[in-house]
Design goal:
Layout (H helix, E strand, L loop, with lengths): L5 H21 L2 E7 L1 H5 L1 E8 L2 E2 L9 E8 L2 E9 H10 L4 E4 L5 E7 L11 H4 L5
Parallel strand pairs: 1-4
Antiparallel strand pairs: 2-3, 2-7, 4-5, 6-7
């Protein structure tokens, strides 16, 4: 007989829905939209400095970082990160900096999309093979 875990899966799904609802209602969000560059380069650009001062993810007071990947006027996807995760990724890829924006006064860390979800970039418990 097949083990039916529908009730467990349903509770798990509902818990995640509640978490997203709480993030959107109560969380402080920083929202950045990236047009086209991510598609051409395979990277997302995370701003860390402007005019020689911390900016973007290094200056935000937000709880969550929302990174929208757009293709022209169409949003392709929306990634929601804990801000501390994006800061950790920015520090890890700090050697991949690109000057961008008006007058190239902003510095962005270029994070390869293909590497965002690698085990080595996730929570320490995941890299040890443990799950929460």
């Amino acid at each position: 007989m097949k083990n039916n875990k529908f009730d467990i899966d349903l509770k798990y799904g509902q818990d995640r829905e509640n978490r997203i609802e709480k993030i959107l209602k109560e969380g402080k969000l920083e929202v950045k939209t990236e047009r086209d560059w991510w598609f051409k380069s395979g990277n997302i650009a995370i701003e860390i400095e402007c005019n020689g001062k911390p900016s973007g993810v290094m200056a935000t007071k937000s709880d969550y970082w929302v990174h929208i990947l757009a293709d022209g006027d169409k949003d392709y996807c929306r990634l929601i990160f804990d801000t501390r995760t994006v800061k950790k990724l920015a520090r890890k890829y700090i050697s991949k900096i690109k000057n961008v924006g008006d007058g190239f006064r902003s510095k962005c860390v270029m994070i390869p999309l293909a590497e965002i979800f690698l085990a080595k970039n996730l929570d320490a418990n995941k890299t040890k093979g443990n799950s929460k």
